[in-house]
Write a structure and sequence with these properties.
Order of helices and strands: EHEEHEEEEHHEHEHEHEHEHEHEHE
Bound molecules: NADP nicotinamide-adenine-dinucleotide phosphate
Radius of gyration: 19 Å
Distance between the termini: 23 Å
Strand content: 25-35%
Shape: globular
Mean pLDDT: 96
């Protein structure tokens, strides 16, 4: 274990509510890793919409709690039963959101899933990967996407969507995507056929598709797209999976990430870190912020147009 002070900087909330109202940067106790956990000195923390949902009561637990799931950093202490990683190793992974009084947006974080950062992978790029890769991989697996399929990814300009497009293309799948202007050209360059999201998408997809769409993955922020996506899937709700619009999905009989039995996919993190180091995969970073500028990151994220990963840097 490395010697350091017993308190650290952390972005936390002490009551549920709007993130702008309840979050604060404050001194917090440096957490100790329990069994099967490691502690890292955080280099970078990628933000996700789930961080703001956490403040609103998603996965409720004991308060205060921290935000920030996606972490890269240097191992600083290892808990009982941990093997294969040592103090001083560079890792990326997921902060133990539910297990403590702080999370990744802090000087130190407890991780419950991790992989080594391969040589050649920058730590900021590494912190952009965990949740986007896990969610995209799990969703693509859930749908059973193969080279035989034509897949539509609705919301491919989100980072989960950008990951899902790349994962499907790696499988040899023909990929159609809806996206805004930010990533449309990059998605085309990767090999996807792209049209815009929003009203009338079923007709636009039909226009650009060179045949029937077999499977649909919806990762767009909830925006009333599911009826159109169901149309794209020829009215078969079993061929559509959403990770976002659970309410509409329930009404339409569409599959959701909450009702699928597919296990979490943290075990692929190391593989995708290596792909990223090799230049075969990427989650674009829109902007980095020192930890004390967390509020600027929150505002951009909540505008609905993060345009890539927003990453906090506790070390400035
Ligand atoms: N269920 C799960 O396990 C799970 C896990 C992770 C994430 N999620 C959810 O998945 C969604 C994506 O997460 P993320 O972190 O990848 O998001 P993100 O990167 O923060 O998404 C931001 C992007 O969404 C695009 N967008 C905005 N409105 C859209 C619309 N109506 N249709 C399509 N795209 C739109 C914007 O692209 P432009 O700027 O180009 O317009 C924006 O830049 C979120 O709703 C998140 O809560 C669910």
């Amino acid at each position: 274990m490395t010697d350091h002070a017993s308190t650290m900087n952390a972005v936390r909330f002490h009551e549920y509510g709007e993130p702008a109202d309840v979050l604060r940067l404050e001194r917090a106790e440096v957490p100790s890793p329990g069994p099967d956990r490691i502690r890292v000195a955080v280099h970078a923390c990628g933000l996700n919409p789930a961080d703001w949902a956490l403040c609103g009561g998603l996965f409720p637990g004991k308060l205060p709690r921290g935000i920030g799931l996606d972490v890269s950093g240097t191992v600083d202490a290892v808990g009982e039963g941990v093997t294969g990683v040592a103090v001083g190793d560079a890792v990326l992974g997921a902060a133990d959101y539910a297990g403590g009084h702080s999370a990744g947006a802090a000087d130190f974080a407890i991780l419950n899933h991790w992989a080594r950062v391969p040589s050649g992978l920058d730590l900021v790029q590494a912190a952009a990967l965990p949740l986007a890769v896990e969610t995209a991989y799990r969703s693509v697996e859930s749908l059973g996407v193969t080279a035989e399929h034509r897949l539509l990814v609705n919301g491919a300009g989100t980072m989960v969507g950008f990951a899902a497009v790349q994962i499907a293309l790696m499988r040899g799948t023909r990929v159609l995507a809806t996206a805004g202007d930010t990533y449309a050209e990059r998605l085309r360059a990767l090999g996807a056929t792209v049209t815009s999201y929003g009203d009338g998408l079923a007709a636009r997809v039909k226009e650009v598709a060179d045949g029937p769409v077999d499977l649909v993955l919806d990762v767009a922020p909830p925006s009333g797209a599911l009826p159109g996506l169901l149309q794209v899937a020829n009215g078969d709700p079993r061929r559509v999976l959403t990770v976002t619009d659970m309410t509409a999905a329930t009404e339409l009989g569409i599959r959701t990430s909450f009702t699928e039995t597919q296990p979490l996919a943290w075990d692929v993190l190391g593989e995708f870190a290596q792909h990223t180091a090799d230049g075969r995969f990427t989650i674009p970073v829109a902007r980095t912020f020192p930890l004390e500028q967390w509020r600027a990151a929150l505002e951009i994220s909540q505008s609905g147009h993060a345009r890539g990963k927003l990453v906090l840097l506790p070390q400035g």
